[in-house]
Amino acid sequence: MLTKLVFKNVGKSMQDYTVYFFTLVFGVSIFYMFNSIYAQQDIMVVTEILTDSMIALRKILSVISVFVAVILGFLIVYANSFFIRRRKKEMGIYMTLGMSKGKISAILVFETFLMGLLALIAGLIIGVFGSQFMSVFTAKIFEADMTAYKFIFSPDAAVKSILYFAVIFLTVIIFNTIAVSKYKLIDLIYGGRKNESLKIRSTKLSVLVFLVSIVFLGTAYALVLKNGIININRIFLWSIILGTAGSLLFFFSLSGILTKLVQSNKKLYYKNLTMFVTRQLTSKINTNFISISVVSIVLLLVIGIFSTGYSMKNILTADLKETAPYDVSFYGDGKGNYKTIYESLPLSIKGIDAISHEYSIYRGDLHYKDFPVDYSSLSFDIGKRGLDFVMFSDYQKFLEMQGMEKTDLPGNGYFIIASGDVYQHIAQQFLDRNVTISLGGKTLQPKGEVQNIKLSNSDSGITFVVNDGFSETLNKSPDQVLNMICKTGEGSKELQENLNQYSNSEDYQEKGFWYYSSREEIYASSLAMKAIISFLAIYLGIVFMVACAAILAIQQLAQASDNKERYALLRKLGAEKKMLDRALFVQILCYFLLPFILGIVHSIVGLTAVNNVMMAFERVNVMDSVFIPALFIVLIYGVYFGLTYIGCKHILRRDQY
After folding, report:
1. With contact defined as beta carbons under 8 Å apart, do 607 and 517 qualify?
2. What are the tens digits of pLDDT across the range 215-251?
3. Which residues contact 205 (CB under 8 A, 6 or more apart)?
4. Half-sphere exposure of 642 (CA within 13 A, CB side)
5. 417 strand-pairing partners
6. What average pLDDT does range 417-430 have in this prediction?
7. Is 365 helix (H, G, I), strand (E, B) or coil?
8. What is the 3-state secondary structure (H, E, C) of 375-433?
9. Residue 568: CB partners within 8 Å, gap ≥ 6?
10. Within 10 A of 326 (CB to CB), how many other CB atoms are there?
């Protein structure tokens, strides 16, 4: 008897709550796919550095998966509470017919177990096949060879998925049992008739609160754009506080303003079921303004991390030669047992057929604060930093090694080299304002244009080029840098192999330099960083996106259950089914769009701040990478909107409105 009832209820629930089941399946599949990334290593040919990176990625994803499981667990419990409330009348009938609370709890336990089992099986099947496509994406991120591709299954990811979701559903079962034990018969019988009450706020109060929210949001946006997102200070904290408060006040006041705006247009207000839709929508916003505000803020995070993570694919891999123009750069100070860095290198490295050049970086007593230049575009204080100088003969060698045309420098002039867009903006001001530099009793004028040349693989900043005669004027203990460019690709590979052997040998402890930076290691580190950030951004972005859309969907499904009698009454009063469907469609669409629109506004400001930081460190424009993440977000949001509309319509039509 109970088993038959359980299967019947599950079949009915599948139709009513497609959103819930879809979320469960989607959650399991995503959980499996991202936890199976390490298993995909078996079908890729990657370097030792990238292998270590995949191990690090696996560990990070394992930790993040705990956080993801908590989010999904909260979402499932949250959804379940709505569905229990929707079935109060059903459980009241069971009790009226003599069924004990223990048996009712048993029914819910079996239903939850069966639905969870079906979702787990379906999610794992989709996840296993989805992970095959994930392998292609992973290989693209790591730029790995997939000639050894084969179908893969990760037992570790499957066990982890089963274990985590078993704990989640066990929590749901415990929650349901406790909830049923506290219910009284009268509450169950009349539970379906208790709806939210619409609290009509005065128009003046709503307008006042709305204006305050706009001021709060505008101030928060201005603070973020001015302060940036790197400087975690009082200004940043105030921008977060004002932004959160502004979002809450915005939706708190929206129900009163929205009602008044629609009522002001009599033709619209009395057209079809606009009056009914407005009341339904404002009632739900009035009740759930906190959760809607949270959704709009989380959407900011979703769009932000999606776009930022997706844009990371452009870092370094687009033009490695520009980022790391030398096969290897050695850094030291010319002190110790060796006169030069090159002299300290082993024969295995010096013997490789390569072009090499060692130069000095001089620092005098001049600081950036001594010059009339605006440094506000930087996210840090550069004023106390000293100016870096290189000699003109070294500059000529840089041009030669990088295949550029040589030039002349007048005796009373200086060139400016700037690596990075933000530094080029600062350097350009020296030219535009004709800033002079005093060295050795001479006044030097800026000449030529700002040169975008990297002096070494790790170079980032501004360097001033002066004639060789000023080397005596500047400090006597300059830093030393040695650059090497191999003449052949085979030579580059041999150099990296010899560097690896040298760095692991005992002789490396007696090296005549601080550290080295090779092109291959920069490239591998870039791929690793890109992969980790991209995977985390996509993983968390999907989970947050699903959570936002599911919360809105569940709230609308709950309202549809609560308002069955209202829709039935409208049908009795002569409203056509098409009119009722259109009213339901508009209501759900507006409920989904309102937090989405505010979230987009938040994101535009947030991405602008992120873009300023990204442009400062790398030539990566986040705004250029917004389209694909935005398309994916709209797709998920649209799917949940469609499922919600279909689910609500099914609930109402089953009761023959």
Report:
1. no
2. 998 888 888 877 766 666 677 788 888 888 888 888 8
3. 253, 256
4. 7
5. 451, 463
6. 84
7. strand
8. CCCCCCCCCCCEEEEEEHHHHHHHHHHCCCCCCCCCCCEEEEEEECHHHHHHHHHHHHC
9. 655, 656, 657
10. 29
Alpha helices in 183-273 (DSSP H): 185-189, 203-227, 234-264, 266-269
H helices, E strands: number in the chain = 22, 9
* H or E stretch at 306: helix 289-311
pTM above 0.90, yes or no: no
Q: How far is the first Cα of the chain from the last one, in angstroms, to the nearest whole number?
A: 31
3-state secondary structure 477-512: CCEEEEEEEECCHHHHHHHHHHHHHHHCCHHHHHCC
Q: Which residues contact 146 (CB under 8 A, 6 or more apart)?
A: 43, 44, 45, 135, 136, 139
> Rg of the chain's alpha carbons, rounded to an integer?
32
Predicted confidence (pLDDT) per residue in 519-556, tens digit: 888 877 777 777 777 777 778 888 888 888 888 888 88
**H or E element, residue 296:** helix 289-311
pLDDT at 313 (0 to 100): 58
Q: Look-up: residue for tokens 């975008």?
A: 452
In degrees and rounded to multiples of 5, residue 186 shows phi and psi of -65, -35
DSSP strand pairing (515-518 vs 437-439): unpaired
- Cα→Cα distances 353→70, 340, 400, Å: 57, 19, 17
What is the C-alpha to C-alpha distance for residues 620 and 149, in angstroms, rounded to an integer?
32
The rounded percent of the chain whose pLDDT value lies above 70 is 78
**Cα–Cα distances in angstroms (integers) from residue 203 to residues 97, 200, 255, 259, 455, in the given order:** 49, 9, 10, 9, 64
Residue 94 C-alpha from the chain's centroid: 47
Is the pLDDT reported for residue 488 higher than 70? Answer: yes
Cross-strand partners of 516:
330
Residue 467 main-chain phi, psi, to 5 deg? -65, 155
Note the Cα 470 to chain centre separation in Å: 49
CB 626 within 8 A of CB 538: no
Alpha-carbon distance of 245 to 522, in angstroms, equals 43
